[in-house]
Design brief:
10 helices; alpha/beta; 8-stranded parallel β-barrel; 10 strands; two-stranded antiparallel sheet
Length: about 290
Amino acid sequence: MPEAESNHRHGECKSLTFIEAHNPLSALIIKNANYTDNNGFIHKFDGLWSSSLTDSAVKGIPDNETLDINSRLQNINEIKLMTWMPVIMDADTGGRVEHFVHYVRKMEQIGLDAVIIEDKTGDKRNSLFGTSVKQELADIKEFSNKIARGKAAQQNTRLMIFARLESLIAGYGIEDAFERANSYIKSGANGIMIHSCMDTPNEIIEFSKIFRKKYPKLPLICVPTTYSMTYHKELSDAGFNIIIYANHMLRAAYKEMEYVSHEILKNGRTAEIEKDCISVKKVINLIPNVS
């Protein structure tokens, strides 16, 4: 990423760590998050992921590309003003080719660092459903053209366009994924995200082995939502440059809000849940006061 530098110790973790932020407050929490290990090294997140799933959920809208792109870009702009951290946007399919060309220019205007578009078509079904629902892949040539048109529309070279491969999600296998990766890279994609809904990383690691033989330096991205037992270092050692934790901030917030609202109704007061909430003073102090 243009402004991100890995904050992991040399020789231990080489990859960048991105995490989902669905609003400026969650982004600010991520910016301030840190962990000091036994050697005194401070670990921080390298950047933010703007998820179509969590952005839609926050607004009570289904994750099917209904949420207007302008709303999403406005949210990202507010996040970047708050944190200045690099942001990768999940832009679903990118829409129709002519729409994506227009979106790219808007993305550049707000200083977006990277966008990922997925090679699916038809009615959107969340990838984590896997083959339990119909997952229709886009025509390779058509999607390659969308990438090429998006790159051609750029007015500067900062914005990176990554292609997200849905072959494993749809049950088409590694060979199909690699064929698509080759075409998308030839069309100008700056990197590849390989997606999987398996509970182990075996298939994405196998893909990485094949990918790295031909593309030793091109950015390769994964999202370990379902294979959550896999450590960051394992994925880094397997050849992944960016590892994205794609929905955990919203999931954590939802769980706690659900519990607190239930307990207030149950107890008729807030004393029992005060320990589960940060203080009002901390909320006030969390937001920087610019003078």
